[in-house]
Amino acid sequence: MVRGPLPALLLTLPVLLAASAVQEPPSREEAVNAAIERGVAFLLSTQNRDGSWGVDIEERTSTIHDLRDGSCALAVYTLLKCGLAGGHPAIQRALAFLLENTPTRTYATGVQLHALGALHDPAQKKRMQELLAILLDLLANGGWDYPGAGRPDLSNTQVAALGLRAAHAAGLSVPKATWGELVGLTLRYQERPVEIPGTALLPREKRRMAGFSYEPEGKATASMTTAGLTILGIATEDPLRVDHRFDVQIEEARALALNWLEQHYSVEGNPEGDGSWHCYYLYGLERVGALNGITKIGAHDWYLDGAAQLLKEQRDDGGWRNDDDPPWPWPLMTANTSFALLFLRKATLPVITGQRREPLYRLEGPDSDVWLVVDGKQSWTMWITGFAPVVAGRFGGDKSASGVPANVRVQAVEWWIDGELAGKVAGDPARPWKDDRYPLKFQPKKGGTLEVECRVSALDPSGAPCELRSKPLGVRSDLVLEPWMLEYARDAASSAFRGQEFTITVSSEESQFHPKGDLFDGLQGSSWWAKQDDQEPWIRVESVKGLHLKELWLSPAASNERWRKDCAVFDEVELRINDAKVPLVVRMESDWRLKTKVALGKPMLVRKLELRVRHTPEPGKYVGFAEIEGR
Are residues 536 and 617 located together in one domain of the fold? Predict the structure, then answer.
């Protein structure tokens, strides 16, 4: 059985090809690896300023999910399973964020156990023991459910089982009685067996099936049937976990559920359930295959079918999400992308983390005069691979298969990163270019997507100087742990506004998903946005008792690269404190990822503060703040 695609293969130096050359289509493994790389890049681009994946902005109306830690831990687990090392800056930032808070509910606790277990780091064992105790207490107090729901459900029970599995694998002791109780709870969610209708070929076929439901006595769905099978697989993974008197009951339940999946088999939607949980269902199917050692559901190769479906559904930005934008269950950008990647990576099977190779970034097309490649490791290497065929035509070169412009005489090659000159490599104008690479090593100093541009100073066929330029090529820099990153991850509880009573008034609110209360919730993943037609956005905060402050910290609404596309950057803010007649003009940090510190000079009692944004409206973009903190 194939145990999942390998990390992306290191590509060899390219051979120059004409624009009309026919390339072989990628193999299935290559296509899956490319999808995984794009999905990982999407998750990295959506990590918030405080190191979290926090909450998807659309999820802010929910009161029943423990989202602060759950979403972040799920992303950490996914990235580790996709090959990121535990020392990767994204993982370190997220861990700093998670360890500043102790979850108290099933989802966040179970998924965090899952994530810490994937680190294989003995230093996390104490934290995992603490989380295991919380899970066991939740079971003792009535079962595994969502905060405020007051009733256990199979989805949370599955998350708890995954957490227990991670704790056991880390060497922690899970009471044998807990495994038995887990099985007993799970079987309550299986529907009563019914006969499978016979087929034309087998009209007298006598088989029965029984799926699992979200609540006892509920309607069976594919996602919950995979959840039930997952739990039974975990319970029997180690023969010492469950008393053997359960064996016959478990095997019968497993056979009935597998028959149900075969009868309702599809990799589209969520058979018999809400299609919004499609990716969740597919990841459940992956766990069923891994824990039960099966490569097929009936005659269907679940991995080949599911992988093909997910490749069709991957968005242009590399992520997966629901098409609509309902109040429930939201687009689920982080969760659906994680579930899709975990399916593609066959994450339930043992894999070695830390083996992901950074991709090669290529720019080799007819619309870029200069062709180049960037090897995006911790220290970048970039080089020229050739010129577009149109350049060969202009310079009198061979326009056959090689496309080599024989008369380009290179004087110098400049490499520009984010609009700044990173390095210059001398050429040799005395001879025509053939296959010189003009490589440059570059050490990124900041994270995010940086634009690489190559400018070639050359002599045309007449001997006159000219310049050839590549198009800008976006290259991700994810291996730089900048000084502010861990600091921001630990800031959530340090604001003077936390736990204080004050009144917030704003000029406008874009929607219920970007309310004013998000300005002071301690999370960078949620934010207040003013309406697009609000020409002078402002915020007023008033407190009867007042707050003693010596500085303010302002965080722009764009807390990650994805939201940067929706949120405008502004240069200045007018700040009035108490009844000051003349406002203080605050210059915002030029790097939108950073918070802007406003020093008040000396500690002062602040009863009222007002912020007014000075900005030039940008069509289609919003103005707002992710967080206002006081120190």
Answer: yes
* Residue bearing tokens 């000051």: 580
CATH of the domain at 396: 2.60.40
pLDDT, one tens digit per residue, over 513-554 is 889 999 998 889 889 999 999 999 999 999 999 999 999 999
Helices marked H in 46-88: 67-81
Residues 6+ apart with CB under 8 A from 409: 427, 428, 429, 430, 431, 432, 433, 458, 459
Sequence-distant (≥ 6) Cβ neighbours of residue 556 within 8 angstroms: 567, 569, 570, 588, 592, 624, 625, 626
Residues 561 and 421 in one domain: no
Is 54 within the bounds of a domain?
A: yes
Helix H, strand E, coil C: the string for 390-431 is HHHHHCCCCCCCCCCCCCCEEEEEEEEECCEEEEEEECCCCC
Domain housing 426: 360-477
Residues 6 or more apart whose Cβ sits within 8 Å of residue 221 = 211, 212, 213, 214, 270, 271, 272, 273, 274
Six-digit token string for 230: 């997952």
Give whole-number Cα distances, 622 to 483, 508, 522, 566, 610, in Å.
28, 11, 21, 6, 19
Start-end of H helices in 239-367: 247-263, 278-292, 302-313, 333-344
- Tens of pLDDT, residue by residue over 370-419, are 999 999 888 999 999 988 888 877 887 654 434 455 578 999 999 999 99
Q: Provide the terminal-to-terminal Cα distance of the chain, rounded to the nearest Å.
A: 57
Closest CA to 563 of 536, 529, 595: 529
Instruction: Check residue 527 and report its DSSP letter.
Output: -
Q: Rounded to 10 degrees, what is the CA torsion of 384, 388, 393, 396?
A: 10
For residues 497 and 621, membership in a common domain is answered with: yes
Backbone phi and psi for residue 371, each to the nearest 5 degrees, phi listed first: -100, 140
Whose CA is closest to 595, among 51, 98, 43, 50?
A: 50
Counting beta carbons within 10 angstroms of the beta carbon of residue 372, is it exposed (0 to 12), middle (13 to 18) or buried (19 or more)? Answer: buried
Which CATH number does the domain housing residue 608 bear?
A: 2.60.120.260
- According to DSSP, the residues that pair with 505 across neighbouring strands are 540
Cα-based distances in Å from 96 to 42, 67, 72, 91, 519: 21, 16, 11, 9, 22
The 10s digit of each residue's pLDDT in 71-128 is: 999 999 999 999 999 999 999 999 999 999 898 889 999 999 999 999 999 999 999 9
270 and 333 together in one domain: yes
Q: For residue 12, how many other CB atoms are within 10 A of its CB?
A: 7
Alpha-helix residue ranges (DSSP H) falling in 296-361: 302-313, 333-344
Q: Is residue 537 within 8 Å of residue 623, measured between CB atoms?
A: yes
